[in-house]
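Q: DUF7683 domain-containing protein, please. Structure only.
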Amino acid sequence: MIFIMGFQKGKDELVYKQKIDLCVSDLILIMHWAESTDCIGVDFPVSPDQAAQIASLVSIELPDNLDLYLANYAS
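A: Structure for DUF7683 domain-containing protein:
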């Protein structure tokens, strides 16, 4: 499962979590991963440009006032 998580700037408390219906292959170019295994076990910071691209792919709005991260967890 792939999630976008959001934190208040400068804080460690999770305030936003959204499952997104994309697979790793959909995100490789957006996230600048070299291989599909690059996403395993790490939470990746998501830039405003990456967030906009992801939001466009899944037709959702993501908060722009949070530090966003992408996480891939085995289901």
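A: Brief note, in case it's useful. Residues 2-72 form one domain.
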